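Sequence in, structure out. First:
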Amino acid sequence: MNTIKFSTPFGFIEVLKNGLPVAFDIVNGSDYFDGYPLNDGTKLYPLGLYTITIPIHNTDVGDTFIVRYSKGELKDDGGGESTRNAICEIDGYVFGFGWADSEDIETGYKFWNSELYTGRTRILPYSENGIIGSGIEFEIVPDAKYDDLDERIVSQAKEMRIIAAWEKSDSPYACEMISYVTC
């Protein structure tokens, strides 16, 4: 679904480009994790789990994007391998965003595939500027070159993907689940 605002039971998600609302794609589910595994082998599933996709191939160096929630104050929750996430409690729900850690990915590419950097200083055309209130800010950066690389890298460079998830605060393992599925 393509939208300017995505409503949830307790507010909405929006994307701002250079301070102005822009359309983004959002689909139910995640490419990474769909639930939180318990020790007995069962899984708990959040009430909301969505993937936000923001196309960035027609942007200019210096453009900023903020993916944010309508209220609340996100707290850095660390993340996982090449990912970051932030969560908060809002109106009886635990809410979280998860996203690719662009600097960690660049470091990994440089270490494992240093030949990719022949003639280029950067692959991904965006960098995360940090958590700002109820959102995450990204900036389009100069000197990224990726068109000649394999399709997986090219697709990472043409869009930003952010996971959004929520669960009722009083549900068992609510914080752990949202932290896990956004990681």
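Second:
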Amino acid sequence: MLLSQVIAVLLAHPLSEPCPATVGSTPRISMWVGSPKVISVADDATFKLSPPEPVDIKLIKKPGPGRGAALLLVGVKEGDAVLTVESDGGVSRWNVNVEAADIDAELGIKTLFPCGTTMRWKFVKERVQLFGTASSLDEWMAVARSQREVPTLIVSGSLDPAVIAWTIGEANVALARVGLTRLHFVRDGDAVLLEGEVPDGREADFAKVEAEWREKLTAAFWKPKNRK
């Protein structure tokens, strides 16, 4: 993941508070390849990472004098390093450990979504979270496919209720189109039911409509299953 991409994500949220001090030992920072960490530091801070390979580091100045600064760390390679930060307030050190993680694969889920998607994503403790309201059935089906392909994906969004109503309405139009005007799909809470009985001799017509709309009706009522 590019450093500029991580910065764009982080600048939309408040910078983290300083890491808590660890009594009797050097504080430890654990990271994934591709994941960010933020450490608050003084305005005059300088830093050194030894060896430099496992982590990209950028110093970000907070707006306004005396507001402090922050170090943005992004894991780029598996390994261990020691981060040393010096300022007028003294010297601080952290042991940094970077482990492998397929974050890029998780971000690849974005390629599943249609153009104009209204869903958004962010990092939550080295996991990707999708949030917002899906404005089309295709978009919500992409959310479902994403969680199947990336089980650790967190989904906190939902499908626009108007889209659910539209999907049921279109399925009923399909029934009427083949002459099954006394059959109707109806919403019952978080499920869809069929009202009426299929007339004798019309089973094939109903089966055709059901096959066409089963996946879409199921997707309209799909609920995320987030792993802890």
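Remark: The CA atoms of residues 52 and 118 lie 39 Å apart.
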